[in-house]
Design goal:
Elements lengths: L1 E4 L4 E7 L13 E7 L1 H11 L4 E7 L1 H13 L3 E6 L5 E7 L5 E4 L8 H15 L4 E5 L10 H11 L3 E5 L2 H7 L6 E2 L3 H8 L3 E3 H13 L5 E4 L5 E5 L2 E6 L11 H11 L4 H16 L18 E3 L7 E6 L1
Parallel strand pairs: 1-4, 1-8, 2-6, 4-5, 8-9, 9-10
Antiparallel strand pairs: 2-3, 6-7, 11-16, 12-13, 13-14, 14-15
Protein name: 1-phosphofructokinase
Keywords: ATP-binding, Kinase, Nucleotide-binding, Transferase
Pfam family, one: PfkB
């Protein structure tokens, strides 16, 4: 069972438009609303793959009630913590060439009591979990050390920790030795404190995160692929996509594939790549099912192309 924790979940509304013109009235060719938030997306992808998942998250207002109903309809067990503030609503505008413009709301500020209840909800369920995936930004009211406290509690019950966050929250949690962290290139550069221009730069930065406490690093590099560094070695993989429809939640789908495939080694990396590639071919933040995957398009190697320049280097 994979337990996900999303401290700042959302409803994600996506509009597909012919083109984005500032100041104009746009007519959407299609629109959809999906449960949102990194951990929520991981649960959705895990459930789509036929595995059991429990989503722990704060829920507030009519938006929170709708989020819970949407998740239940997808076969996801929800462990909701009632909060006074309303669950946020994010808006994305998708153009035909794959360009995505997003407006993310701040979300509610949690009280100290609500933060404690959220931590307790994770502790009560982590003993039954193979993995606890801690995902996304922390809402107002939660200190950067909150993920670290959560990791310590979950590790004490025997669960493994996957961490997908950034900034001070990532740095503070490294001392609790998360079993895998999943930064994108920008987040990895921030954690390393320097630019990343090549795959070799990514590999070096991943090694530094491991030295600082992460047992494994799964780095998402967008169209350039993904890199995995763990105790068994360093692996690099790609899964080319001819046309990107929406990249919302693609990293979350990758993490779900990685964890569902065991969470270590090249086989799990291949699953992560297949799930991420499938996600970007789908509308909005739709999560892929097994029928959407194309494992034949995935390539994984130990021969890491360290001199390969990143398509979008991080300054």
């Amino acid at each position: 069972m994979i337990l996900t924790v999303t401290p700042n979940p959302s409803l994600d509304r996506t509009y597909e438009v012919p083109g984005l013109r500032r100041g104009a009235v746009l007519r959407a060719a299609a629109d959809r609303v999906d449960p949102g938030g990194k951990g929520v997306n991981v649960s959705r992808a895990v459930a789509a793959a036929g595995h059991r998942t429990v989503a722990v998250l704060p829920l507030g207002g009519a938006e929170g009630a709708l989020l819970e109903r949407l998740l239940a309809a997808q076969g996801i067990e929800v462990a909701g913590v009632p909060v006074a503030g309303a669950t946020r609503v994010n808006v994305a505008v998708a153009e035909p060439d794959g360009t995505l413009t997003k407006v993310n709301a701040a979300g509610p500020e949690l009280t100290a009591e609500e933060a404690a209840l959220l931590l307790s909800a994770v502790g009560e369920r982590s003993a039954a979990a193979d993995w606890v995936a801690c995902c996304g930004s922390l809402p107002r009211g939660l200190a950067p050390e909150w993920y670290g406290r959560l990791a310590a509690r979950a590790h004490a019950t025997g669960a493994r920790i996957a961490l997908d966050t950034s900034g001070p929250a990532l740095t503070a949690a490294l001392r609790e030795r998360p079993d895998v962290v999943k930064p994108n290139a920008e987040e990895l550069a921030e954690a390393a404190g320097r630019p990343l221009a090549t795959v070799g730069d990514v590999a070096a930065a991943a090694g530094e995160l491991r030295a600082r406490g992460a047992r494994a690093v799964l780095a998402s590099l967008g169209a350039d692929g993904q890199l995995l560094a763990d105790a068994s070695g360093t692996y690099f993989g790609t899964a080319p996509v001819a046309r990107v429809r929406s990249n919302v939640g693609a990293g979350d789908a990758s993490l779900a594939g990685f964890l569902a495939a065991g969470g270590s080694g090249p086989r799990a990396l291949a699953a992560a790549l297949a799930h991420g590639a499938a996600a970007v071919r789908l509308p909005g933040s739709a999560m892929p099912s097994p029928a959407d995957l194309d494992p034949s398009a995935v390539t994984v190697t130990t021969d890491v192309p360290r001199d390969r320049a990143l398509t979008e280097p991080v300054p």
